[in-house]
Amino acid sequence: MSNPSRVLVLNSGSSSLKFAVIDPYSGTLDLSGIGDALGQDEPTVSWKCDGRTQSSGLPAEAQHSDVIRFLVDEILSKCADLQEHLIAVGHRVVHGGEKFSHSVLIDDAVLNTIRDCIALAPLHNPAAVQGIEAAFNAFPDLPQVAVFDTAFHQSMPRHAYIYALPYELYRDHGLRRYGMHGTSHRFVTERAAELLNLPVNEVNIISAHLGNGASITAIRDGHSVDTSMGLTPLEGLVMGTRSGDVDPGLIMHLASRLDYRVKEINELLNRKSGLLGISELSSDCRALEQAAAEGHDGAQLALDIFCYRLAKYIASYHGVLSQVDALVFTGGIGENSSLVREKVLAHLDGLGYELDMARNLRARFGEEGPISTERSAVTLVIPTNEEWVIARDTASLAPPNRPNGDPSSRE
Ligand code: ADP
């Protein structure tokens, strides 16, 4: 190992725990894996190290802490002696509310504030808390850092984040737009600045993160000034299974006319809508592209709506930003789907976008670069790397000397 320092990155979901060991300076991934179906009958853990993929069952109802214990006992010690090179643990935390506009070293006060944000992210933050607590137990000597999905969007101005609702809902309950995917939008911003040869605090881009979840952000002078996700990840673009923007009147209609309960509406909008709901086939863009090519009307309609709605957001963000240095596509769909990119740009020729067909077809499987013609508004594909951002922030915030494991030393 040229630089021996490594960061363990943990991403705790409600029933999963993704982990990775990364060189924070080069971004090299030494280990990646996932504990899945946690709390259920047959949890599993699978991981890749030294080019080898392995997997194992875990005891029924195993939790995040069990995955971390397995990671310590069975994986780290046997995988290139990684354990002795760990300098810190970085945690992805979905919601930091208004409390965190940057990544922070976790101490008891920070952990309590993350707990306070559970009200804003009841599905996501409890898992992060569980992962942090388990990691403190497993690695008492290592500093731990929280990297928030919402932090990058804390620069949004009030007129972008306040809903047109009674103001007291914001004042008393924190109900406002927060935005998500901030770590990815930040990575893309920094990388776009490098590719465009601009200082990061002077770059103006529109960043479209299109994965199973999808959001788009307007970035002025390197800072987020508007983004499509809101209080929750449901607002904004059409996603794999989420509706994105709908008329709020629809919710009253579902409840009063069709007898839907809150839980069913939640399920409908978050898990049964989007690409899956429209196509009645799949939430997966690749599967829909194939089905559409074979004449499946629902798949075609789902892709049409996904691209049209995305193009509308891009056009509106041209209005938000006085100057756009580049439109950037990222995330599984943004990085790989030449069809989606082509369909989106076809709506935007009035704004000066012109696709270079050959470049667009080439840009997939991790390829980075421009997909527009020389005379077009600049359009880039940049593969995102949220784990690397988390590892970099973690390494830069971790004190040079490891604390001695006394919880009071966790400053
Ligand atoms: P997540 O948000 O869960 O991290 P990803 O960023 O991996 O998801 O994106 C998953 C989406 O990317 C899926 O809809 C998948 O079909 C799509 N995708 C991946 N590869 C391709 C491809 N070659 N062509 C079209 N879509 C793709």
Task: Describe the model.
This protein has helices spanning 64-75, 108-116, 125-138, 158-161, 167-173, 182-196, 249-258, 262-271, 274-279, 285-293, 297-320, 331-336, 338-346, 357-362, 386-397; strands at 6-12, 17-22, 29-36, 44-49, 52-57, 86-93, 104-105, 144-148, 205-210, 214-220, 223-227, 326-330, 369-370, 379-381. The longest helix is centred in the last third of the chain and has 24 residues, at 297-320. Helix 1 (64-75) packs parallel to helix 3, helix 10 (285-293) packs across helix 11 (297-320) and helix 11 packs across helix 13 (338-346). Helix content is 37%, strand content 18%. It folds into two domains: 6-148, Nucleotidyltransferase, domain 5 (2-Layer Sandwich); 199-377, ATPase, nucleotide binding domain (Nucleotidyltransferase, domain 5), CATH 3.30.420.40. It is built from 15 helices and 14 strands. It has an eight-stranded mixed beta sheet, sandwiched between helices. The model is unreliable at 403-411 (pLDDT under 50). With 411 residues, the chain is α/β, with parallel strands linked by helices. The chain binds adenosine-5'-diphosphate. Residues 211-213, 240, 284-286, 289, 331-333, 336-337, 364 line the site of adenosine-5'-diphosphate.
